[in-house]
Structures are given as C-alpha cells and as structure tokens.
Amino acid sequence: MSNNDEPENYFEQYSNFSSDKIRVEIPADQEPMYHQRIPSAFDPMGNIYVEGRAMRSMSSGTMPWWVLFAGWVLFGGLFFMLLGVAISSLSFALIPSLIISGVPVLVVLRGTLAKLSAKKSARR
C-alpha cells in the first residue's frame, strides 16, 4: 500500500501557500442596466405617460378579468350612453364626443380579444 492518502503528497507544489494568502473574490450584485423612471402623475406630461402605460397594459390582455369587466362598465357605459343621446337628438354636434369616448372602448375591446385569444391558445 502506498502513502498517497496524505494531502501533502497530492499538492506538493502548492504547499508554500499559507491560509492568509488565499483570497476568494465575490462579485458585487449586478444592478440592472436600465432603470425605468416613472414620472409623477401630478404633472401634465407624467399624467399622459401614466395613462398611456395603463392603456398599453390594458390592451395587452394581461390584466385580470375584473379589471377588464370594470373597463367595459366604465368606458363602454359612457360610450353607449353618449351613443344613445346622439341617436335620440339626431345632432352631429355629439360626433366628436363619440370619437373621444370611443378610443378607450377600442382599447378595452383589443384587451378583451387578446385575453380571449391567450386563453384559447393556453387550452390547446
């Protein structure tokens, strides 16, 4: 039997190191490269940005069902109420208000279609 069980025999060339010379470097935590700063919604440009971000997330179809339903109640209710007033008054003056109130309805419709198509593809 040989005396190869001794660690000094395996690492003879490294035996001149003492334990205080050994260093272990631990890398620092990497910060993300891009910090997206969300502006305050209290100033006008920040309000536009925050509303746009909310509309983008609503049209992506990733919101919960209750948010989608609340969007239909709020935006769809306003649009259909204005549509009823416009039809009953037979006035062309309400067309700009219908167009303005129709934009959020289109966003909610797009979100609904995206949500339903995502659910259908998840079933497959």
- Number of helical regions: 4
Rg measurement, Å: 32 Å
Secondary-structure element order, as H and E?
Answer: HHHH
Unreliable runs, pLDDT <50, ≥5 residues?
none
Write down the domain tally. Answer: 1
> How far is it from the N-terminal to the C-terminal residue, by CA?
65 Å
Name the beta content range: under 5%
Mean pLDDT: 80
Gross morphology is elongated
The residue fraction in helices comes out at 55-70%
Derived from helix and strand composition plus strand pairing, the structural class reads mainly alpha
**What is the β-strand count?**
0
Task: State the major sheet.
Answer: none
Topology summary:
Elements: H1 7-10, H2 44-59, H3 65-89, H4 95-123
Helix pairs in contact: 2-4, 3-4
What does this structure look like?
The protein has one domain. It starts with 6 loop residues before the first helix and ends with a helix. The model has no long low-confidence stretch (mean pLDDT 80). It is mostly helical and 124 residues long. The protein is 60% helix and 0% strand. The chain has helices at 7-10, 44-59, 65-89, 95-123. It is elongated, with a radius of gyration of 32 Å.
What would you say about this model in short?
With 124 residues, the protein is an all-alpha fold.
